[in-house]
Fold this sequence. Notes:
By secondary structure, the chain is of the alpha/beta class.
Amino acid sequence: MKSWSHPAVPSIPGTGPIPQLFDTATGGLKRACSNSHASLYVCGITPYDATHLGHAATYLAYDTLVRVWLDAGMDVRYVQNITDIDDPLLERANATGVDWRELAESQVQLFRSDMERLRIIPPQHYVGVTEVIDDVADAVAQLLQSGIGYRVPSDDADDDIYFDSAAAAGVAWSLGSESGLDRDTMLTLSAERGGDPERPGKRDPLDPLLWRAERAGEPAWDSVLGRGRPGWHIECAVIALDRHEETITVNGGGSDLVFPHHEYSAGHVAALTGEPLAEIYSHAGMVAYQGEKMSKSLGNLVLVSRLAQEGADPRAIRLALLSEHYRSDWEWTDAHLSRAQARLEAWSRWAAAVEASDAAVDPLVTVLRETLSHDLETPRALERVDAHIAAGAPASAEAVTAIDALLGVRLV
Ligand code: 5CA
Ligand code: ZN
């Protein structure tokens, strides 16, 4: 699919450090670097409602990672998917009487324009699952062949195909190796997040769906498996494998994807290749609004597009989101935006008097680099800029450039 346009990212003199990033699987910080390049797979939207601030916060976290990597001189390879066929999309399309393809297309377009508005660096490959149905079917056929995929009969269709978690356990993955969760928690989360632990005929209630045979009235594709459509986790496993030739540096997404989604994407990749999906499993915290996680199903959304229509400067939206650390769960309030607006005005006044500096590297640039490379500490980075300005330091061209390159906020 078409991605969105790339914002200008200036380069800062010198290079920044390789970032350290928190890894869910080991519960600690890890150096995020394979070699001279870094690869990133971030789970994309299910396009049935427009970009809310929770989505924006998650994509902004990985945008910050990309910016830090670029500043460290790394070649960055970035892939993102679109879940453009799945139950929630079909349910919304049916409920509103809109064709599911039109719904997906319109929401993806809105997402692209919101990402552009926020100056978020696009992935090089932006891939809808509907573009890779054959690849998914081939992968599921391979799992069937190796005995890791198995058939589960259904009353109203051909057999569905499931993933045998126990048979897949090996060196690169076993159940729990990504999430570290106990079985009871997994059972609860599976039921809440698209799994079907109650389905009869499965070898283990936790085993996830790989392929859903065609049902009357549902979209389906011809494939080596017959007519049907992909399960959710195999979609991301196959897109990550198709576009990255080796274990990726970082697999990212919101923390609602820790289990089952990233656990089983990792399991599927390990079963297909014998290699781990990622070196680091990274998760952004959940943004709440009015006391609950911001989500399409609850309807408590604050949309990026609506804030922009109401006159919010996209740079202030960016600063408001960056004022919270990406790993914390937090609640959006109007005060986030008004504080960010005031900050943007103060920074802009300071930057208007930008002057060339003699210093080899402005100390603010070093501070920003160090702060961000430590698990993307954006709230501290913003405070360091505030303190620099409050101390009366002049605006050097390097510092203004660094704020643009690393924080994505162009002041002049
Ligand atoms: N299509 C799948 C991933 S393959 C999906 O989860 N789509 S989504 O539209 O529901 O979410 C898109 C991204 O935003 C995911 O990374 C998800 O974890 C993240 N996300 C969703 N809600 C929030 C929230 N309230 N706060 C932070 N991130 C969120
Ligand atoms: Zn995903």
